[in-house]
Amino acid sequence: MNVLELKELTKKFGDFAAVDRLSLTVKEGEIFGLLGANGAGKSTTINMIASLLPSTKGEIELMGRIIAKNAKFAKTNIGLVPQELAIYEEMTAYENVHFFAGLYGLRGSLLKSRAEEALAFTGLQDKKRSYPRDFSGGMKRRLNIACAIAHRPKLIIMDEPTVGIDPQSRRYILNSVRKLNEMGSTIIYTSHYMEEVEELCTRIAIIDHGKTIAEGTKEQLKSIITDRKTVGISVRSTEGLQIDKLLEIAGVREVELDEERRTVTIASDAEVNNLNRMIQQLLEDGMEIRAVDERQPNLETVFLTLTGRSLRDS
Ligand SMILES: Nc1ncnc2c1ncn2[C@@H]1O[C@H](COP(=O)(O)OP(=O)(O)OP(=O)(O)O)[C@@H](O)[C@H]1O
User: Fold this and answer.
1) For ligand 1, is residue 18 a contact (CB within 6 Å)?
2) Which residue intervals define the domain ABC transporter in the entry (predicted)?
3) ipTM, 2 dp
4) Position in ligand 1 atom list of the atom nearest CA 40
């Protein structure tokens, strides 16, 4: 079953299309990754799915129903973990979850028990009477999640839930995403951390300039670039290294120099046998070579190849 289908979804701010005829399908049971650089249109897309922002054009279907015509159905079946923390500092953790679960339509004793359950799920049961102003960043993020899941939505949307938190809380959140998925929720997970998306997501859409530029499993996305190889060469010092000379070598497409890690990364056409020539050039530049490794393509390489930009720097 398709849990979510976006059909030519468009959002314009004035003349600028932040989301531009974006189509994609999320199936039941998936952890679906939306991967894109800052400003690619991820949050705008999510805000439209969560009915927080009207679309300019196109359609959003949740389990076969158009959300614009089924507002209550959409509200009770979607849980949004927004990028900006949406919790009230002057309310206790329990009161926060109770309040949001009420907004999502829960009432009475069910509301109370589900609020407790969500706090337990996020490891905050001991803190239920505490105020979020005393929480660490990671605990606030967990409370933000508890508020979005108490009503047990079919579709949980997480907009960059691990931004700015410590590694331990990040691990906790990633594990929670997996558990929620195992318990039956379909998840949409947005991030510009390629490693997270690669680790968690069963299918991924790469978004750029408001459009889906590639969609598929990790393996399918990587197979787009099987005609490329990436070689990483570590040297003792990068001083004197001539990037333009490396770029003149047959087959070489891109050269990236990391002075801090003292490595040079060379992307090249896979079928051209040019490793000897690269090494020879580095030796001519006076480099002392420490290690050479041929890297498997990852989502970062896919992104770089499709958009011409690095996910981090753009
Ligand atoms: N209310 C608005 N008015 C005008 N432009 C907007 C508005 N909201 C978003 N934009 C623009 O739309 C584009 C997409 O923004 P969006 O926040 O959806 O990107 P994103 O992929 O979520 O990025 P980030 O990772 O930084 O959250 C950006 O260029 C942004 O400046």
Assistant:
1) yes
2) 4-234
3) 0.95
4) 21
Task: Give the pLDDT of residue 11.
Answer: 97
Is the pLDDT assigned to residue 314 strictly greater than 60?
A: no
- The Å distance, Cα 41 to ligand 1 centre, comes to 6
Whole-number Å distance between alpha carbons of 145 and 91? 16
Ligand 1: centre distance to CA 300 (Å):
21
> What proportion of the chain, given as a percentage, has pLDDT over 90?
69
| Ligand 1 site, residue 47, Cβ cutoff 6 A | no
For the Cβ of 13 lying below 6 angstroms from any atom of ligand 1, the answer is yes
Instruction: Give yes or no for a contact between 191 and 205, defined as CB atoms under 8 angstroms apart.
Output: no
pLDDT tens string 63-86: 999 999 999 999 999 999 998 888
pTM higher than 0.90, yes or no? no
Task: Give per-residue pLDDT as tens, 278-291.
Answer: 999 999 999 999 99
Residue 79 in contact with ligand 1 by CB distance below 6 A = no
**Helix, strand, or coil (residue 158):** strand
Q: Is the CB of 223 under 6 A from ligand 1?
A: no
273 CA to middle of ligand 1, Å? 43
Distance CA 282, CA 99 (A): 62
Task: Name, in order, each residue with C-beta under 8 angstroms of 171's C-beta and a sequence gap of 6 or more.
Answer: none
